[in-house]
Amino acid sequence: MLTPRPRFRTSGFGLIELMVAMVIGLIVVGAVLALVVSIMRSNRQTLQSTRLTQELRATLSVVSSDLRRARSVNDPLSAAVIVTGNPYKAVTASAGCVIYGYDGAANGPWHVIKLVSGKVVLLGSATLPANCSPDGTPIAIGSDQVEVTSLSFTPTTTTSTPPLSTDESVVRDFTVTISGRLVDQDADLASVVRTVSQDVYVRSVGAGI
User: Fold this and answer.
1) Which one, out of 34, 104, 195, 209, has a CA that is 20 to 30 A from the CA of 91?
2) Structurally, how many domains does the chain consist of?
């Protein structure tokens, strides 16, 4: 008489258990991917914001370096005996524009720096411009990746002792302020605005503007 073989019950995942495990796995993978994408996006925003600040500072540095030379002359002694005084003493600052001159200025001796269509531009003029729109080819200052939203030149005045003229208000320096944002398809990045400013001392002090 043959002895029946014992039946062994195999263990493993059933179809339902397998499907549940797959769903849980997909949820975990989706959460990890979402976290990675969020981290990458945050890093990009941080890098682009830092880049925006650096670009604005670079533009501000160029503007400040040139403005710092306003009223300077090659021969101060000769300029001192001129009846009308320093030929470049006139410095006119307004919202978004400054007019100044100095010996040796490229395309000058007069320079105009102003904001045009989101760009800071410099124009040269052989004579003192009557306004902020002299003839000439504007030279863009700054990166094409940045749109400058505002530019201002604020003069700081003090009282001289004794007064240098009937107007005791004397321009000692200017505060240059630039605001801008990135030109980017990402709306979140394009909406970020940064502002940088710097005080610029004008080496040759003259009467107030």
Assistant:
1) 195
2) 1
Has residue 110 been placed in a domain? yes
Contact 57, 196 (CB under 8 A): yes
The gap from C-alpha 206 to its chain's centroid, in whole angstroms, comes to 29
Cβ atoms within 10 Å of 81's Cβ, excluding its own: 7
91 neighbors 70 (Cβ within 8 angstroms): yes
pLDDT tens for each residue of 35-46: 888 787 777 777
Its pTM stands at 0.71
- List, in order, residues 6 or more apart from 170 with CB less than 8 Å away: 157, 158, 159, 160, 164, 205, 206, 207, 208
39 belongs to a structural domain: no
User: Is position 37 within any domain?
Assistant: no
> In this predicted model, what pLDDT tens digit does every residue of 140-158 receive, in sequence order?
998 888 899 999 998 876 5
Domain that holds residue 158: 47-201
